[in-house]
Task: inverse folding
């Protein structure tokens, strides 16, 4: 029988500026067994986070604004984690392939679907960059 440790569990950072959405997502992900940290997007304390997947909303409108793309690129370069974007912008389905993200989930979303997406992104990232081989 294989034992699951905290190190084996997926670690997720939820960066969401809407407090109610952030707390709901964090609680749901934790209840599913994920290790979760949260930030409001302006929180410098996340700089030391190292984990598997960042879940964030896009914070800006229109959806393809340069500021959104720059923000997502910054998250990717600072953390080297998978990136899942939550958005309610209608253009997301058209522009998703152009975003620097591993997946785009439309709001409103089903929590189980979000967990499935996070798991798939993390599994893909781990398969391409197994733990212990991360660049420092």
Result:
């Amino acid at each position: 029988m294989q034992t699951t440790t905290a190190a084996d569990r997926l670690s997720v950072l939820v960066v969401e500026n809407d407090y109610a959405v952030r707390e709901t997502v964090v609680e749901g992900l934790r209840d599913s067994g994920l290790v979760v940290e949260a930030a409001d997007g302006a929180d410098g304390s996340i700089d030391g986070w190292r984990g598997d997947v960042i879940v964030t909303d896009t914070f800006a409108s229109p959806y393809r604004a340069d500021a959104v793309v720059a923000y997502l690129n910054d998250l990717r370069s600072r953390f080297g984690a998978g990136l899942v974007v939550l958005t309610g912008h209608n253009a997301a389905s058209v522009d998703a392939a152009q975003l620097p993200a591993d997946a785009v989930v439309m709001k409103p979303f089903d929590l189980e679907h979000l967990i499935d997406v996070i798991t798939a992104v993390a599994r893909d990232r781990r398969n391409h960059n197994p733990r212990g081989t991360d660049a420092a």
